[in-house]
Amino acid sequence: MLIYYESQIKNSPIAKEIFKKFWNYEKIEIQHYKNLFDINIWNYKTEPLIILAKQKHIAILPTPKNYWFPWKSFFFKPSLNCFYNCKYCYLQWTFKNRFPVFFLNYEDMQIEIINKIKEENKKWYNWPITFYASNYADLLTTEEISQFHKYFLPFCESLPENILIETRTKSANISSLLQYSDNIKKQWKTPSQRIEVAFSLSPKEIAEKYELWTAPLIEKITAINKLLEEWFRVWLRFLPLLPVKNFNTIYWNFLDEIIPKLSIEKISSITIAPLIFNHWDYNILLKKYNNDTEFSFIKKLQKNEHNLQTCTNEEISEFKDIFEKKFNWIKLFWDYI
Predict the structure, then answer these.
(1) Cα(86)–Cα(130) distance, rounded to whole angstroms?
(2) What is the DSSP string of 309-334?
(3) What are the extents of the domains in the chain?
């Protein structure tokens, strides 16, 4: 594996830790990460590499209207590209290549988050605010490299009570979180309450076909329960719901399997949603898999003002019925679809 790093971050504490940890890999200094990241080499085999960089223009971007919750939420980008290969994911075509980029100037990101909070406070906004960190990468999967949670867990605990930072994952790599949790408890005398770990869960049949290289379901369930034992905030994301053949049976059996194994009463929130695209991403997916029988369902669309959904009204209703019946003994389901 090659490690490319920008000149301006080579002396940062995080970069030094990474260099020390991966001392036997070749390291190549560059001036700007885009000199590699903007090269269109999707169709060529290249040696595995990562890019360490500094994000010079940190964007705290508002989420689309009705993204999940009625209150305000924003995206920020600690990393670009994902190690997993989910066939339906927009990251399959968003960038010109799949080189993972890690922005290591976390302190600058934290300053921008604080500034955004202050900006909203000046507008007399006192409702919850969520900052989504994992829309462009699975940060838990790469924690050994990025150390994102190591630096953000203490920061999150210093934020006001109405602030939440979400890190989303399809992995079961929680050893670092458990380690950091002990430090949080010693410093703050309480478990982590400002960061929520969101696990994307799919039936085995779906994951094996469409979510390549992701952690097995049983490993995710084990990881979730361990975090709940430590009183981490855990968000279950049953998405994307794919209207594949026999989906009713597949998802019904899926819930039958996982509900007895999860400490549902400790879950902080649950989201259920179909596969959603904007028009541009949908047209790319349709072209990419137009003759693929495994993606025949993408031609069935439910249109709304903001996006395209790969479920019809009838299918969405069936999905809702399945999950509501299975979760009728708790009040945590159906935030938004």
Answers:
(1) 25
(2) ESS-HHHHHHHHHHHHHHTTTSS---
(3) 1-54, 55-93+104-286+317-326
The partner residues of 101 in beta bridges, in order of sequence, read 51, 80
The residue assigned the tokens 């989906």 is: 247
Tens-digit pLDDT profile for residues 14-73: 999 999 999 999 999 999 999 999 988 765 567 789 999 999 999 999 998 767 666 899
Q: How many CB atoms lie within 10 A of CB 250?
A: 17
- Let me know if domain 55-93+104-286+317-326 sits in CATH 3.80.30.30: yes
Write the pLDDT tens digit of every residue in 239-270: 899 988 899 999 999 999 998 999 888 888 88
Given phi > 0 = left and psi -120 to 50 = alpha, else beta, which region is 124?
Answer: left
Rounded to whole angstroms, the Cα distance separating 91 from 141 reads 16
User: Which DSSP state fits 87?
Assistant: T
- 167 sits in which H/E element: strand 163-169
